[in-house]
Amino acid sequence: MRVRVNDIMVGYSEQGAPDAPAVIFIHGFPFNRSMWREQMDALAEEWRVVAYDVRGHGESGGGEKSFSIKLFAQDLIALMDTLEIERAVLCGLSMGGYIALNAILTHPDRFKALVLSDTQCGADTPEAKKKRLNAIESIEKNGIEAFTDAGLPNFFAPESLESRQNTVEHVRSMMSATPETTLVKTLRAFYEREESCSKLQEIRVPTLILVGEEDKITPPEAAKLMHQKIEGSQLEIIAHAGHLSNIERPAEFNDALATFLGSL
Ligand code: MLT
Question: Where does the pLDDT of residue 159 fall: very low under 50, low under 70, confident under 90, or very high at 90 and above?
Fold first, then answer.
């Protein structure tokens, strides 16, 4: 399904009863909403589950504006208005977590709980900024396939690369389907993103933090830092998972998510 949100059309999927409490899923980069399939199926009996494509990704238009985490969070709030979701549980993975943190800090009344998966509150370090610029240069010079081939293994725990071929191929197809302009504009948005660690004590809703034990991109240390700063938050480290813990270890991820949602 697609709806108009701000200056773009946004692709989204929805399951469950329209009057059930809402859970909104935000995917990582450079993926799309299909990465949440197993979580949507697992929760749809009790929740209104919504997953959408972030601006420029999946079936969502990119528009003419430069990208920023702030703009992505504004799109989320406008989507909630359009879908008449007054308050939701927000679940974001990696880039989805950057968006979730921005949205909850700017619109605290719109969210009743938060799930932060394989993400971080810090801005890019000078070294990370340099990598973003190199990635942009390489995409512009060598195209998406080279970017996908180089980046793909970093998302997974070694065990997943060996034993979860279908999952790896799903991730490859999401990456190669992402337009080059989206890759470049989103990498610039990451380069410029502000830290939110200093504001995490403002978060007053129940929060679950999940991270793959072998996440190399946003490692368990980044999750532990958020756990220390968000009062009352819970931390679950998922064994044998890398950066994409929800698709590498869906059973463990879904158990943690269902237990948390059940406690609300
Ligand atoms: C993601 O999975 O969304 C990205 O790895 C985030 C990032 O590169 O900072």
Answer: very high
